[in-house]
Amino acid sequence: MAQAAPGEVYNAHALRLGWDARCDAPRTFAWPGFAALLSLWQELRGNAVLPRRSALTARRLKSVLPDIALYERIAQGSPGTWRVRLVGTEFAKVYDGAAGQLLGECLTPGPAFRFQTGLDEVMTAGRPLRFIARCDCVDRNFLSGEFCALPLADDLDQPVMVLLCARFSGVLFEDFLATVSASDRQAKSPDSAARVSDASTAIWP
Length: 205
Fold this sequence. Notes:
Number of strands: 6
CATH superfamily: PAS domain
Number of domains: 1
Helix content: 25-40%
CATH class: Alpha Beta
Largest sheet: 6 strands, antiparallel
Strand content: 15-25%
Structural class: alpha+beta
Radius of gyration: 16 Å
Mean pLDDT: 86
Strand order of the largest sheet: 1-4-5-6-2-3
């Protein structure tokens, strides 16, 4: 049986369960701020399959530290069981959860399943993925977000963690998705830098 393409399993769940969410593996992201994080991930990976979590120090992540969250898979399953390891201040304003909690303890069942399914997708892909989603959170479900999801290994080079970096917007999800899609198309065309910048400004003033 052919291996599923990155994002395929998550997107099938999204279609079946009516999630306002998409997963893909683009070469560029709509928010320019993800570029440095992706470069760091690739640099630290070197010739390994994945970079080690221990190499991603707070100093190296300083520019995005408020916008990130780190999750560790402690048991496999459908979905897997994930523990919160770290939550930045801006990320915590949208997705609750303290270090040490299980995802199922800090999110209601529906959002927890969606979140865990997304993290599993990143582990299976073994490469950076992007999620575009309406954020189903307590009192904040009007937000849209672009997520850069990076798989990480422990010090034994076992793939067990996912670093999420998120950029949230108050733009309605349908408009947000349309703008991000337009940004993706523009990024593939020649002389696209200015037009991509314009698209990004439309959702992140």
